[in-house]
Amino acid sequence: MPAADVLIAGAGPTGLVLALWLTHFGIRVRIVDKAAEPGTTSRALAVQARTLELYRQMGLAQAVVDRGAKVAGANFWVKGRHRARVSLQGIGEGISEFAFLLIYPQDEHEKLLIARLADLGVHVERNTELIRFTELLRFTEPGKEVNAVLKRDGNTEEGCYCRYIVGCDGARSKVREIIGTGFPGGTYEHFFYVADVEAAGPAINRELNIDLDHADFVVVFPLHDEGHIRLIGTVKERPDCTPADLTFNDVGRRAIEQLKVDVRKVSWFSTYHVHHRVTDHFRKGRAFLAGDAAHIHSPAGGQGMNTGIGDAINLAWKLAAVLQGKADDALLDTYEAERIGFARQLVATTDRVFTAVTSTNRWAKFVRTRLFPLIMPVAVRFAFVRRFLFRTVSQTQIQYRESPLSEGRAGVVLGGDRLPWIRFADGTSNYDTLAEPRWQVHVYGDVDSPLEMACRELGVVFHRFAWQREMSDAGLTEGAMYLLRPDQYVALVEKQGVKELRNYFESRQLRP
């Protein structure tokens, strides 16, 4: 009966990232998926800046950027006329090293993650489905473990003991079904399609192109190869057939024709409903939910896959700390506390955006087709608008201020915030030190020597940066102590003090 510290059900981006980070921390994992092969008909496209910042920890960021397509602008069309263009060039300048919108299809993304995981000696177990699991008392030492039953190749059952199980198994999650945490929400009435095609025309310009017509809806996404695009739009009503019977010939063609998209070849085509749901709990006992198993919403803003990856990294370092005896099991309760609030907020936000984009209401149509093309190009000329848009979409605004792991304040930065990013004159940045997922302390300005010694004793990496004006502009406070978690969030921000640093770990029963 093969054992693992963590059994991961589902080998999409969320499960693969969780497996990759846990393996890096030295945790034994098994990752299973009932599909015979990796997905080839994925819908997720955008890789946000926050994901790329975290991907630097595994040396993945540059590989994703090199394989992806940077998008310089977004174009808006109404009734076949190009009404507006919004420049996205450097929209996140000064906020992140990855100050751009990047398109990298999920199927290619998964291949990269699978390859990196294989380099570490971990392989996805295909044709392997989770059937059931139970918690049981361990006989070798006090505590509990999970006894899972897997089915291979559709018939052979196999047992697997593990310390924890994580459901990354999508909207129809077996793990969620077993633990009974529910999946409240709903389904939009609209039916959508996604297609990868080779095409030509004015909208095949390596930028986003969006048709805002009330009678039809389509978005053109550029892919890496010249002339290759992804189309997402509405499907025409066909009451005489099932979704599985639909083909590209059944999609709404008016918007495609108005954008003057000349489709030469359809590589693949799929239809889907869009849901908006969040489970009631991300944890129950030794079972956890992450990604689409925990929350699912409209594709507005390209948030879904990135949110799942954020779940995985948040959970990974905490599982590793508990399994390695560096933290009490209570640390794992902070996973739900930190991630469920953002998931609920995201579902509500994307629901409003999605409804506005697809509504046939007269006022919504007027705003979408008349006001928006006029106002948006003007609004994005203002720096504060561009910063707001980038922070919202890029997920760099995610914070955990209400978390039990967050403490202190210095200036505008509070415990739980993402550390402000700063580019130095020599081309380096303060994020260069975050490449390794470890606890560390940053001090910007002069430092007290007892603090540096205390960091060495505790096993916390210490970095001091000479004070520069740009640090103040970014929101940092001269001489303050910033304790950073392994996932790059500020755990404690305080005046330099050995007592405060020690108390942070002792009060939470944590060891770096």
Automatic annotation (TrEMBL):
<dbReference type="GO" id="GO:0018677">
    <property type="term" value="F:pentachlorophenol monooxygenase activity"/>
</dbReference>
<keyword id="KW-0560">Oxidoreductase</keyword>
<dbReference type="GO" id="GO:0071949">
    <property type="term" value="F:FAD binding"/>
</dbReference>
<protein>
    <submittedName>
        <fullName>Pentachlorophenol 4-monooxygenase</fullName>
        <ecNumber>1.14.13.50</ecNumber>
    </submittedName>
</protein>
<dbReference type="Pfam" id="PF01494">
    <property type="entry name" value="FAD_binding_3"/>
</dbReference>
<dbReference type="InterPro" id="IPR036188">
    <property type="entry name" value="FAD/NAD-bd_sf"/>
</dbReference>
<dbReference type="InterPro" id="IPR002938">
    <property type="entry name" value="FAD-bd"/>
</dbReference>
<keyword id="KW-0503">Monooxygenase</keyword>
<keyword id="KW-0274">FAD</keyword>
<feature type="domain" description="FAD-binding">
    <location>
        <begin position="4"/>
        <end position="349"/>
    </location>
</feature>
<keyword id="KW-0285">Flavoprotein</keyword>
<dbReference type="InterPro" id="IPR050641">
    <property type="entry name" value="RIFMO-like"/>
</dbReference>
